[in-house]
């Protein structure tokens, strides 16, 4: 009888610890088994969001880039990716928003320019079957970039971050709008 109570208390304690580890306010990474690809995917709990203001068009008119970092483990082989979602609050009907995303992305982190390698335009290009930290309720387009753990660690520890998208001749600069470097740090300790 006593050992049953002990086991019951242990199970309740384990369940409580697991619930705390995956609580919505937690900065720890989320991990899931992708049902389509059978890869184990670990994702930063919150993405970095960068914005570019367009006050000449309307109040609160912005283009955004959401960067979601993830590791994809396929039978022990781990690859790191940055899922870059391009979206906007601009009305695509007036021709100012809704354009296709640029292939070139430059992340300025302190004194370093990082040029991640484009892997494709869909989650399947990273071996993932579902969208990873996509902006909810918005029309977006996706670029998937290859990365590595050292680069993601550098981004997590950088004091200043911004992103330039587009060609080298006409880059559009996006400033950090939602700073979630703490969540990135938890993914790549």
Report on this structure.
The protein starts with a helix and ends with a helix. The longest helix is centred in the N-terminal third of the chain and has 20 residues, at 2-21. The chain has helices at residues 2-21, 149-157, 181-187, and strands at residues 30-33, 40-43, 48-53, 62-74, 77-88, 105-109, 112-114, 117-120, 140-147, 161-165, 172-178. The chain contains 3 helices and 11 strands, in the order αβββββββββαββα. The chain has 189 residues and is an alpha+beta fold. Strands 1, 2, 3, 4, 5, 6, 7, 8, 9, 10 and 11 form an 11-stranded antiparallel beta sheet that branches. The chain has one domain (27-187). α2 (149-157) runs antiparallel to α3 (181-187).
Defining traits:
eleven-stranded antiparallel sheet, 19% helix, alpha+beta, 11 strands, single chain, 189 residues
Could you give the topology of this structure?
Blueprint: H1 2-21, E1 30-33, E2 40-43, E3 48-53, E4 62-74, E5 77-88, E6 105-109, E7 112-114, E8 117-120, E9 140-147, H2 149-157, E10 161-165, E11 172-178, H3 181-187
Antiparallel strand pairs: 1-2, 2-4, 3-4, 3-11, 4-5, 5-9, 6-7, 6-10, 8-9, 10-11
Helix pairs in contact: 2-3
